[in-house]
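Fold Annotation — chain and its backbone
Next Lines — sequence and tokenised fold

***
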Amino acid sequence: MATKLYNKHLTDIMENSKNYYILDTYIALAHMSMQIDDKFYIQTYSDSISNLVGLVKRYVKDVSYGAIRNAIIELMELNILIYNTHMDSFLLNEMENMLKKKNKFSSDSDTSKYVGYTHIQDLFFTIKFNKLKYREKRLLIYIFQLADSNANKNYGVNNVCNLLKSNSSWMNILKTKCLYYARDTIRNFLENNSDLFEDTSDNFKIEFAPKHINQFRFSFNLNPLKDKINKDGLENDKDANIVINNNQSEYSYIVSRSLFVGIELSKTQIMHIIRAASPLPIWSYKVELINAIINKLKASEEGLSGDSISSLPAYLFGITRRLMQEHKKYLEIKEKIIDDFNAVALES
């Protein structure tokens, strides 16, 4: 499971794409991915983009099939998403680098890939985020990148935005050279999202500076969002909550099955099981996987299993892959039967 977004992927998307829903799609793919041997995979039973669209639509609500499909195709064109035939899965390319730091003794000269990560927020899966204009989505993502950066790991810290600064990153994010357009966009963005940001611009105006200097300077922090997280407990188990909310059927069956077997599962375990079951195309496959893993965990708990599970995601990945391969064989046999039937019908 990924709880983070690779900053290089985000930068590549924001610099090279104009697709309205590409950020929504990338975030969904990242969140549903499973980390196996440091790589981040999204399991499907074929390289068909249609299978992937169906999974993404669980997270990206009220968006058409075509819009999500176009976003996925563009992610593949950007080499962010690729299909790995060996693993029968889509792969978020080089996403493992977000957890690495540049080794000064390494011969690797490409330091652009060691740029860290940004945490996935509940907010990214809300209608509020979905309905933002694309430039506002870029702006919001950039703000969270700043909040998660090494220099500012605190939502209460004030972010100062100076549009007059040479080669301003804010101007680059908004993709404009017009100061007035950038000023109005940021001003309106802060006003319309007061539930997320505290506008502290008045506290950071330069005394006695000309008016045109201060009107292009903004300051804000994420205190309102921080307070909301503390009040509502949104930060606690937030990743599990996102997965559960978007996969209610799988969650209900896991809970009922675990109660029947008599085993208590943690939210993290439930999240991993849901993530493994969700891409399976037939409900009976989901049931088979859930039953198999719960029985295995119960046997391990009672000391009846010879080998323990060292990595739950990897173990689930193996079961899911077997079921996917069985489904592929089923489709091949089904297609052959139909072809043979049609051939006989034509002959007669």
Remarks:
- The longest helix spans residues 312-347.
- Residues 230-235 have pLDDT under 50 and may be disordered.
- The beta strands are 4-6, 34-36, 39-43, 81-84, 89-92, 117-119, 159-162, 198-199, 217-221.
